[in-house]
User: Which sequence fits this backbone?
């Protein structure tokens, strides 16, 4: 009986399991169908997405029937056709655009130089964009800002119309350039950005300009407004009437430091396509501006600035302790800074 019972239970178990097995099979089949479904779906999705990208590419090709520019092969990476998000380049959509950055240091004539560039109908130099700290807080914010500028989406008083043929900014070496030089060089070389170095030869004059400018920031003799650049001889004369005292002890070390920063900047960015300018040469020789326009591939124009030079004539008229400065630099390699002068 016990055996029977046992057999029965065994049998019932077998019976039960044989009843169960189609259920398991069904589940397996169902699962298999599900997996197949998902697989087919992904393939479909992939086909749809590749379909849309080819469509997208076709669309772009159709939208950009710009003729191949007649240029040397090496120039190709530096020629761009930006497609601004905020407006249409309209009749100039096929005019190639060059990207540039003016690399300089404070009080080296870059403000004046930029007004000259912006006097050209086809050049937009958007100012010292990275003087705002958040924009240079890290490499990603720097690249985001550059992308916007070079896509012609940066709005400033220097923004021109849709016929901009060269777009850029003014960038001081101490505004993240030296700190992130590796990444920025890579960006410039992959995106085809050219560099315009603008330095000043007479670093003593630059120092006077810095001291006077920082005095003006507090004293504001021009009706209570701080002005780094002026547009009339009258204003220039007022600003130049302040004669700074130069610390003769720290003079040579600080001149040397500026020299070293300049050298380092040139070294870091020398692999970018570049041109080196000195403020004094541009002042003396206007054919330098023709060279810059050639570098930026824009039609040559006579360029004008309304800015007036603040510290004119001999340096001895602009330094309170001239005798100390003369003594400190006499016989050093910086001696020429005492005399070197130019008209205008
Ligand atoms: C360039 O400067 C001249 C003289 O100041 C001015 O008449 C002209 O409108 C300026 N052009 C541009 C594009 O700013
Ligand atoms: C970069 O800086 C911005 C603004 O300061 C910040 O929002 C962002 O998280 C930073 N990104 C990285 C990768 O550090
Ligand atoms: C320069 O701008 C003018 C109009 O402002 C436009 O007609 C001309 O095509 C532009 N030149 C280049 C080289 O983009
Ligand atoms: C101050 O403002 C007055 C009136 O606007 C003007 O006549 C005068 O030239 C200004 N002075 C300076 C130093 O800019
Ligand atoms: C010059 O600068 C040094 C270092 O900052 C300072 O110790 C010294 O007092 C300064 N000399 C004058 C005359 O201001
Ligand atoms: C001006 O610069 C050009 C090239 O930049 C040079 O060929 C020319 O001799 C210079 N002229 C003077 C007067 O220095
Ligand atoms: C410069 O140094 C030389 C000798 O080293 C001296 O004869 C001359 O008077 C000095 N000039 C000035 C302006 O100190």
Assistant:
């Amino acid at each position: 009986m016990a055996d029977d019972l046992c057999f029965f239970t065994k049998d019932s178990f077998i019976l039960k399991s044989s009843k169960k097995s189609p259920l398991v099979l069904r589940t397996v089949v169902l699962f298999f169908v599900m997996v197949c479904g998902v697989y087919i779906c992904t393939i479909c999705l992939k086909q749809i997405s590749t379909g849309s990208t080819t469509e997208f590419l076709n669309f772009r090709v159709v939208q950009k029937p710009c003729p191949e520019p007649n240029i040397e092969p090496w120039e190709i990476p530096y020629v761009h056709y930006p497609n601004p998000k905020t407006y249409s380049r309209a009749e100039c959509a096929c005019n190639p655009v060059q990207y540039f950055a003016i690399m300089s240091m404070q009080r080296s004539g870059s403000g004046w130089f930029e007004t000259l560039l912006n006097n050209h109908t086809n050049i937009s130099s958007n100012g010292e964009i990275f003087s705002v700290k958040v924009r240079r807080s890290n490499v990603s914010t720097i690249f985001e800002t550059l992308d916007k500028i070079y896509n012609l989406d940066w709005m400033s008083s220097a923004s021109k119309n849709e016929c901009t043929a060269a777009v850029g900014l003014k960038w001081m070496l101490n505004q993240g350039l030296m700190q992130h030089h590796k990444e920025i060089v890579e960006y410039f070389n992959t995106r085809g950005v050219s560099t315009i170095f603008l330095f000043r030869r007479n670093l003593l004059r630059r120092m006077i300009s810095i001291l006077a400018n920082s005095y003006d920031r507090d004293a504001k003799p021009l009706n209570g407004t701080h002005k780094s650049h002026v547009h009339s001889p009258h204003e220039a004369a007022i600003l130049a009437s302040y004669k700074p005292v130069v610390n003769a002890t720290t003079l040579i070390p600080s001149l040397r430091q500026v020299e070293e920063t300049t050298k380092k900047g040139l070294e870091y960015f020398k692999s970018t396509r570049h041109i080196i300018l000195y403020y004094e040469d541009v002042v003396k020789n206007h054919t330098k501006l023709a060279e810059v326009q050639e570098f930026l591939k824009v039609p040559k124009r006579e360029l004008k600035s309304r800015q007036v030079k603040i510290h004119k004539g001999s340096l001895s008229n602009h330094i309170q302790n001239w005798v100390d400065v003369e003594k400190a630099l006499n016989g050093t390699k910086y001696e020429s800074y005492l005399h070197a002068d130019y008209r205008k």
Residues 247, 249-250 surround 2-acetamido-2-deoxy-beta-D-glucopyranose (ligand 5) (CB under 6 Å). The chain is about 50% helix and 10% strand.
